[in-house]
Amino acid sequence: GRVIFESMCWMCHGNAGRGDGQAVKAGAVPAPPSFQSPEYANATPGQLAGKFAESVSGEDPKHPHMQYVKSLLKPDRFEDALSFIPALSYPPEIPGSALAGQRLFDYRCAPCHGETGQGNGPAAASLVLMQPANFTSDTLIAKKDWQGVYQRIREGGRGVHGSSMPSWGVVLSPDDTWDLVAFLATF
User: To the nearest whole number, what is the mean pLDDT of the chain?
Assistant: First the structure.
């Protein structure tokens, strides 16, 4: 399902399934619903198939172009794509996508925090005062204080106790930050 989503669906649904893909931003199609909502995150494959059927049928279908998209795929491949939707909003209690967050983490955070989040990335050895957080033992993550994790990413270390963590809020959107929080929750 991930391969189908990432090759076809992302253009409208966006990388994290928020309905903010490039085709929507260009005005080529109306915005689809966000898969980050609980009604999609917790849906069964049958419920997702029902939601899809509702969006393309009736006198005034919301997304008539989806019939064309569906016609391009073998039925089992389309079902795989539908089954992938809950993975976009994992973990469902956080308004972000761990899958999208992993991409950001790999690019922005792993150099200091390491690929496995243990604070041992290649850039960590260059830091003078304080080593990067180890997300496998971080207290905010252990307490499931997702708002606290979000704030820490947005505000950075602010020099607290020698932390050199930058304020990522100046370059990451709130949605990107929640994606990172969702990924950090997997540690």
Answer: 88
